[in-house]
């Protein structure tokens, strides 16, 4: 008799965004005339930049003509785009062969799909608080999960400890939800740990474009030794407003081998079986991000989000509230005021000043007592929200 994948029964229902939506719509029903200041969700608010839009239009025209029409694209990505992305890493001193870059439909797809390369008997370590997909993708495959909590004492940047029995390690830097960023020295400890143990790091670099401190690493491959223990998963969602357009890339070095198997070659085999590539039109749009014009335009948008972060950070500073993130990441992770749990603080902000954020508890148990603000919202709303937060918390 057919057996479904019973591991799905082990998934915990994620009530986080559902609860937020429920509470918000109940409030709006009771207070239809009140404007809400939305700083909860991690979705972008600015449209695609001009360079991308122009490239997308041109690609659509290409598909309309016999001599420029494209059918199936190479499964691992357009060779030119793979070269372009490798060159983007090159600017930061990271040498990649273009065949180590795989064009993807986005990071979420890859974070789960990549698990195909590893036996279900492996143990996965998730540093928490964490982007919820890491845990859920592993629960679906029945893997044992180790939860490594982090906190204010280590700046939400925990380091490996002797005896940790982790085979796969998720590291997200800059981090969602905490906005904390690992230094090169800290990442080196994780790289050394992984190489010594024979583990593999799945490095989520979805927010690398928000790093402004020149000493902080954008890529795990800036760390010596990473080529033999890491896979990097990147997204154009927040970098270039591609949340609804969809594209990303994954880097698997040719030096990454385990038990005589080459993980780059395995992923080529996987992609050529499981996908027929990303569309020609999207890859053309994505390529425009890496031109000088595209880089200038996406960074102008990122700067708008960074200004939102500045406005919020100044408000929290004035209130004497502890937080991390905001400077090199689009999230601000604050300690709830004395006596408030995450959800209580959510209710307090909604009812008193109509500001919506995300309760930290939704990202793992150690997030209780913390609260996340996204800086992807409307700049005018963010300014009003910051004023309201100040007025409320300084009362
Ligand atoms: N990784 C992290 C840490 C994220 O926060 C997100 C989206 O919010 C993703 C991956 C998903 O990115 P994508 O839109 O490319 O699927």
Features:
395 residues; alpha/beta; Aspartate Aminotransferase, domain 1; Aspartate Aminotransferase, domain 2; 2 domains; seven-stranded mixed beta sheet; 12 helices; 15 strands
Secondary structure layout:
Layout: H1 16-30, E1 37-38, H2 50-64, H3 79-90, E2 101-104, H4 107-113, E3 123-128, H5 133-140, E4 144-149, E5 168-172, H6 184-197, E6 200-204, E7 230-235, H7 237-240, E8 248-251, E9 257-258, E10 261-262, H8 263-274, H9 280-289, H10 292-319, E11 323-325, E12 331-335, H11 342-353, E13 355-356, E14 358-359, E15 370-374, H12 379-393
Parallel strand pairs: 1-13, 3-4, 3-5, 5-6, 6-7
Antiparallel strand pairs: 2-8, 7-8, 9-10, 11-12, 12-15, 14-15
Quick description:
With 395 residues, the chain is an alpha/beta fold.
CATH class of the largest domain: Alpha Beta
Task: Provide the helix percentage.
Answer: 25-40%
The CATH architecture term of the largest domain is: 3-Layer(aba) Sandwich
- Report Rg: 21 Å
* Low-confidence spans: none
**Helix/strand-derived class?**
alpha/beta
Structure description:
With 395 residues, this protein is α/β, with parallel strands linked by helices. The chain has 2 domains: 10-48 and 294-393, Aspartate Aminotransferase, domain 1; 50-291, Type I PLP-dependent aspartate aminotransferase-like (Major domain) (Aspartate Aminotransferase, domain 2). The protein is 38% helix and 15% strand. It has 12 helices and 15 strands. The protein has a 7-stranded mixed beta sheet, with helices on both faces. The protein has a 4-stranded antiparallel beta sheet with strand order 11-12-15-14. Strand 5 (168-172), helix 6 (184-197) and strand 6 (200-204) form a beta-alpha-beta unit.
């Amino acid at each position: 008799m057919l057996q479904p994948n019973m591991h799905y029964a082990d998934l915990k229902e994620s009530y986080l965004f559902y609860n937020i939506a429920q509470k918000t719509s109940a409030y709006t029903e009771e207070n239809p005339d009140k404007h809400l200041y939305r700083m909860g969700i991690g979705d972008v608010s600015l449209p695609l930049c001009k360079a991308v839009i122009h490239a997308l239009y041109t690609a659509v025209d290409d598909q309309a003509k016999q001599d420029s029409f494209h059918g199936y694209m190479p499964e691992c990505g357009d060779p030119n785009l793979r070269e372009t992305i490798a060159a983007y890493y090159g600017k930061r001193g990271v040498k990649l062969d273009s065949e180590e870059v795989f064009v993807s439909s986005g990071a979420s797809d890859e974070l789960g799909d990549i698990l195909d390369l590893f036996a279900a008997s492996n143990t996965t370590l998730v540093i928490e608080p964490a982007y919820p997909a890491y845990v859920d993708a592993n629960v679906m495959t029945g893997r044992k999960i180790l939860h490594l909590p982090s906190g204010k004492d280590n700046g939400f940047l925990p380091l490996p400890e002797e005896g940790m029995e982790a085979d796969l390690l998720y590291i997200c830097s800059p981090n969602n939800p905490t906005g904390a960023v690992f230094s090169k020295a800290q990442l080196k400890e994780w790289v050394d740990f992984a190489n010594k143990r024979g583990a593999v790091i799945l490095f989520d670099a979805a927010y690398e474009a928000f790093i402004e401190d020149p000493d902080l690493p954008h890529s795990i491959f800036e760390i010596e030794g990473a080529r033999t223990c890491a896979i990097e998963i990147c997204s154009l969602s927040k970098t270039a407003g591609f949340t609804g357009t969809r594209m990303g890339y994954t880097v698997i070095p040719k030096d990454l081998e385990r038990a005589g198997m080459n993980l780059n070659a395995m992923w080529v085999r996987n992609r050529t079986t499981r996908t027929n590539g990303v569309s020609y039109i999207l890859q053309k749009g994505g390529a425009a991000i890496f031109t000088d014009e595209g880089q200038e335009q996406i960074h102008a948008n990122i700067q708008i989000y960074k200004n939102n972060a500045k406005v919020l950070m100044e408000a929290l500073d004035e209130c004497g509230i502890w937080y991390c993130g905001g400077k090199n990441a689009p999230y601000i992770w604050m300690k709830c005021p004395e006596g408030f749990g995450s959800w209580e603080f959510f209710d307090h902000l909604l009812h008193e000043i109509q500001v919506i954020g995300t309760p930290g508890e939704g990202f793992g148990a150690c997030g209780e007592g913390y609260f996340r603000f996204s800086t992807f919202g409307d700049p005018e709303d963010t300014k009003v929200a910051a004023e309201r937060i100040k007025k409320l918390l300084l009362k």
